[in-house]
Amino acid sequence: MATTFHSTRSTTDSLTAKQAIRKGIADDGGLFVSDSLGQTKVDIADLAGKTYQEIASDVLGALLPDFTAEELAQCIADAYGSQWSDERITPLKPLGEDYILELFNGPTSAFKDVALQILPRFMAHTTPSDGDPNEKIMILTATSGDTGKAALAGFADAPGTAITVFYPESKVSQVQELQMTTQIGANVNVAAVEGNFDDAQSAVKRIFGDKILAERLAKDSHVVLSSANSINVGRLVPQVVYYFSAYAQLLADQVINVGDEVEFVVPTGNFGDILAGYYAKLLGLPVKHLVVASDKNNVLFDFLTTGTYNRQRPFFQTISPSMDILISSNLERMLYYFSEGDTRLIAMLMNDLNKWGTYEIPEELLAKIRQLFGCGWANEDQVREMIADCWNKNHYVIDPHTACAYFVAQQMPRDPLTPRVILSTASPYKFPRVVNEALGFDATGTDFECMDVLARETGTTAPAALRGLEHAKVRFNTVVPIDGMERFVANAAEAL
Ligand SMILES: *Cc1c(COP(=O)(O)O)cnc(C)c1O
């Protein structure tokens, strides 16, 4: 049976994987899902000893069957090559009685590189649906920090694409801002926005929904807008690979035998990372539990304990900014699969969320979800304590996002028979000031001085791309008001 994709909110669409990747989000606002997910399993018996790239070709082959093996091989080779500082791509390391899966060895030192290094390569193999052979995709993204840079790095000079990134002025770290404003590439545009992340994100959503602008961009500039957010299938599926890679490394290290179950603890914001773990389970990976670790914005914790999702709550800007999220978009896909494809239920829940800011799922559905998904959260004091605790116990430095998961793992009862893998989503050098404060090191200087202190005190090395930002040339210094974002996008499209 051919794999086709439709919206989580209706079954009327029927798109190939390539079309779904190019389009990003369904017309009714739902996310693309495939009902054949899990029909093709990935063979786990011969995982041990396979390279990341070999595992990627097995997993992506099962998830994106309309890409040829040659196309996938090319995408994988280009995306997971020498731009990674570890040849295992996502190395697994022992951490006390647990394991840590490092997802941050890519070019921007955050886990989003895993997906955003390959998404532009996928897109290069898609073709315009309505026949304009000159059509270019412009990626439009609002970022609270990490996504913007990872998307810029992935799409810079990628054929047939351009990218525009907005970030909230003065609301990202010095390192994060420089990562974006120094980005090279002829097809990239970056602007700071006078407002917070939610303002920028809402404006981007409005721009996506503006039919008149869309027509003008298509007609005058051959440009269609698309999203690099984790709602895109092409961003989600590459993340399935590292769950298999973790399992392969546990097998190779003889921690487990084929078929043994493993537990994953995942720092969670938009629910993309952890959802990929669920996809891995559907593809045959023996996953016992997936544990959602949140920061102080604990909307998912409340949902998974009560069955009520309620975004009507204060928003906290924390020291783990990439998890500061009140609407976890990818949760919609999980609900779709757990409700056995009940598009009417999903449409109703999402309508409630839009209208009332809240929804409630049936009790039996919650019970089913809770058999697989655990949850916990850490406040900022606990995050700081855990950064220190992990360093003191293991001589391993973790960033504030990973520290949320580390905290949740410490709180859980340990099952001695089930290895536990904590996913590490960012290099501590992206947040050197907070990390130094937590570890009691000098944190009074610039971010770069903080990096040097962290390196000296811990005997670790800052990623060269981060340390080098101090003297990199700033290319972008535009600040736009919220209502100037649309014009900025139109100008960028015209200049292509
Ligand atoms: C994006 C991000 C997360 C959250 O991942 P989701 O897929 O949105 O749940 C966690 N940590 C870091 C460092 C991130 O950049």
TrEMBL record:
Molecular function (Gene Ontology), one example: threonine synthase activity
Domain Threonine synthase N-terminal: 5-80
Annotated TM spans: none
Name the record gives this protein: Threonine synthase
Family designation: Belongs to the threonine synthase family.
Required cofactor(s): pyridoxal 5'-phosphate
PANTHER family given in the database record: THREONINE SYNTHASE-LIKE 1
Residues of the Tryptophan synthase beta chain-like PALP domain: 101-326
